[in-house]
Specification:
globular
Length: about 300
C-alpha cells in the first residue's frame, strides 16, 4: 500500500492521518469508509482495501494516538465517543454526501456511536451526509467481558523488543482460529512482520482503547438508528475475541439488519467457519463481492 497520506487537524489539537485510495472513482461509485479495530492501523486493511479500490473509493484512517495520527499535546484521554467524533469531523471535512461504512471490532462500535449522534442525550450532532450501508464486522453493540486484553507495562519498566514481539504474537494468534494458523504459518509470519516496527508508545495507546471499550453505552439509542441504513452483520463462528453471540445480539437490537449469507454466489461466503480477522480468510475477491453486492442493494426507503 502506498505510504502517502494527508493530515486533518481536529478541533482539540489531535491530528488524524487518512488517505483515500481508488479516488478516481469519486463521483461515479459510492465511497466506503473502513474503520479500524483495536490495535489496528489503516495499513492493516491492505488485503481488503486494495481489492475494494478497484471499483470504488476507500477511505482509510488511523485512530488518534496510533499510526500516523496523534493526541493533542498533554491530553491522551480516549473514549469511544471521542473516536466517533473524530470520524465525524473527518467525514464532514471530506464533504461526501453519501457513503457506506464498514466497522471492524472496535471500529464497529465507533461507527454505531457516530451514527447515533443525532440522538445523543446531552451533546447531539447532526450528520451532514447520508450513510446508505453499514457493515458491522466481528463487533458488538454492548460492553462485554471479553475482547482483546492488553495491559500496558509500567512507565518505569518498558518492555524489551523481544517481550513486545511475544505479546503481539499472542494477541494476533487469538484473532485467527487454530486450523487457519496451522495451515497458514508463512502467511501469519508475513502478517506479523509489519507489527514489529511499530513504536513502543503504540502499545500504551492500545491499552487506552481497551479501557474505552469497557465504558461505552448506547444500547438504549439503537432503536433510533435510521432504518434507511442497510445493515449487514459479519461474524465468524470461530471468532475467539468477540463471541459470535454478539453478532446475534446486533441482529436482535437492529431488527432490519441481515447476516452475511453462506453459498457459492457472488456476495456470499463459502462458510461461517472463520475467525476474528475475517478479511484475511478466503480469497480477497470473495470479500470484494460481499461488499459490492451489498452496496448495490439500495433497499426500500423508510419515511421518517
Amino acid at each position: 500500500m502506498a505510504t502517502g497520506h494527508s493530515i486533518l487537524a481536529l478541533a482539540d489539537g489531535a491530528r488524524l492521518a487518512y488517505e483515500v485510495i481508488g479516488s478516481y472513482h469519486l463521483g461515479r461509485n459510492e465511497p466506503i469508509v473502513l474503520v479500524c479495530g483495536m490495535t489496528s492501523l489503516r495499513s492493516d486493511w491492505e488485503r481488503l482495501s486494495q481489492t475494494l479500490a478497484r471499483t470504488r473509493p476507500v477511505l482509510l484512517y488511523d485512530h488518534r494516538g496510533i499510526g500516523d495520527s496523534s493526541f493533542p499535546d498533554g491530553n491522551e484521554d480516549l473514549t469511544i465517543e471521542l473516536l466517533a467524533r473524530d470520524l465525524l469531523q473527518l467525514l464532514t471535512y471530506l464533504g461526501w454526501k453519501e457513503l457506506s461504512i464498514c466497522g471492524y471490532s472496535m471500529g464497529g462500535v465507533v461507527a454505531q456511536q457516530m451514527l447515533l449522534f443525532p440522538h445523543h442525550p446531552t451533546n447531539p450532532a447532526p450528520l451532514p451526509f447520508r450513510t446508505t450501508h453499514l457493515i458491522l464486522a466481528a463487533t458488538r453493540s454492548v460492553v462485554i467481558d471479553g475482547g482483546l486484553r492488553y495491559t500496558a507495562p509500567a512507565p518505569n519498566k518498558p518492555r524489551t523488543l523481544a517481550e513486545r514481539m511475544e505479546v503481539t504474537r499472542r494477541i494476533m494468534r487469538a484473532t485467527f482460529d487454530p486450523s487457519w494458523l496451522e495451515h497458514n504459518t508463512q502467511r501469519f509470519e508475513l502478517f506479523l512482520s509489519p507489527l514489529w516496527s511499530r513504536p513502543a508508545k503504540h502499545n500504551r495507546f492500545i491499552a487506552k482503547q481497551g479501557v474505552a471499550l469497557r465504558e461505552f453505552d448506547f444500547e438504549g439509542l439503537l432503536s433510533k438508528l435510521s432504518q434507511n441504513i442497510q445493515v449487514m452483520v459479519i461474524h465468524g463462528q470461530l471468532d475467539q475475541v468477540i463471541p459470535p453471540d454478539c453478532g446475534v445480539g446486533i441482529l436482535k437490537r437492529i431488527p432490519w439488519a441481515k447476516s452475511i449469507e453462506v453459498g457459492d454466489q457472488p456476495g456470499q461466503v463459502p462458510t461461517m467457519a472463520f475467525g476474528h480477522q475475517w478479511y484475511e480468510y478466503f480469497d480477497a475477491q470473495v470479500w470484494h463481492d460481499v461488499v459490492d453486492v451489498f452496496m448495490k442493494n439500495k433497499g426500500a426507503h423508510v419515511a421518517v
